Amino acid sequence: MNIQTARRTKPLMPGFGVEIFDVDIATADQRTLADVVSTFHRHGAIVLRGQTLDQPAQLAFTRLFGEPEDNARKEYCDPAYPQIYVISNKTVNGKPIGDPAAGLGWHTDNSYSKLPALCTMLHALDVPPEGSDTLLSDLCAVWDALPAERQRALDGLVLHHSYVALAEKKKQPLTDELRANYPDVFHPLVRRHPTDGRKALWVSTGTVRGVVGMPNPEGVDLINELVAFATQEQFIYRHKWQVGDVLIWDNRCTLHRGTPFDTVNHIRHVHRTWVRGDAPV
Fold first, then answer.
1. What is the pLDDT of residues 32-48, one digit of tens each?
2. How far is Cα 13 from Cα 36, in angstroms, rounded to an integer?
3. Could you give the CA distance from residue 33 to residue 190 in angstroms, rounded to a whole number?
4. CA-CA distance, 2 to 29, in Å (whole number)?
């Protein structure tokens, strides 16, 4: 395996993301893996198919992108590897082994933290025959598609993000520890990517209470309007899962969601890791 092999790629869609071929993450040398990481930072998302990664191997690969981030919902973490979050509708001895309904609304991961996740890595162990797609919106393309006057009106606005708001909407338990660990935070609506300075319309749902300095429902209406604009078909890559897929997306410049599937007759089982990011600017 060499660095040239790692560069055989195919765009996921025009101007966004790449599929990387001929790389076995578990056996690749450090030059090849470094090229994979570099490719990720330039393209917003990468896909590597046919991977076999146990938990230590996924964590080792995650560390090449940065420090693995912890998860708020400990009940769905792998007991032996708590930085791996299990997304699954599978049950063992009548007990769910993972989160059966993760990521069904448009959002950016860990946006309720002071340092939101730089990237998200999913490794598919079981996939349904249909449904359970992952949709990614290219928020840099979204920003570029806005008229200049609209860009000037939005640049400088700040969003109020809240883990408490998310938990309340999802009717999830809220402990004193969670409230203390995840206080409300404030992030810019327009975010600049540190790699090349490109701007992204960094909007989200679920965690967002409103726009700083703008009363609701006006602020919430603006957020909903921008999410609707950002999730038009021309901005979306739809990932159709295969067993062994590794999909990594850049939370600094994307919006994502999962799609439903037949949870009665089919199984989804995915291991997710996050990489700790920087304060959005």
1. 999 999 999 999 999 99
2. 18
3. 31
4. 7
* Bridge partner list, 48: 246
Asked if residue 183 has a cis previous peptide bond (ω within 30° of 0), the answer is: no
CA neighbor of 210 nearest in space, from 252, 281, 164, 158:
158
Residue 136 bridge partners (DSSP): 237, 256
Q: Say what percent of the chain tops pLDDT 90.
A: 84
State how far Cα 142 lies from the chain centre: 17
- Burial group, residue 85, by CB count within 10 angstroms (0-12, 13-18, 19+): buried
Count CB atoms within 10 A of the CB of residue 232. 11
How far CA 124 is from CA of 107, 193, 276, in Å, comes to 20, 28, 21
Q: What are the structural domain ranges in the chain? A: 3-276
Reported residue count of the chain is: 281
pLDDT score, position 7: 61
Say how far apart CA 257 and CA 121 lie, in whole Å. Answer: 14
> How distant, in Å, are the alpha carbons of 156, 162, 177, 258 from that of 49?
39, 35, 38, 19
At the top level of CATH, which class does the domain 3-276 belong to?
A: alpha beta
Residue 1: band (very low, low, confident or very high) from pLDDT cuts 50, 70, 90? very low
Whether 48 contacts 257, CB under 8 Å = no
pLDDT digits (tens, 9 = 90+) for 172-185: 878 888 888 889 99
Token representation of residue 172: 């999830």
Cα 34 to Cα 23, 28, 61, 119, distances in angstroms = 12, 10, 10, 16
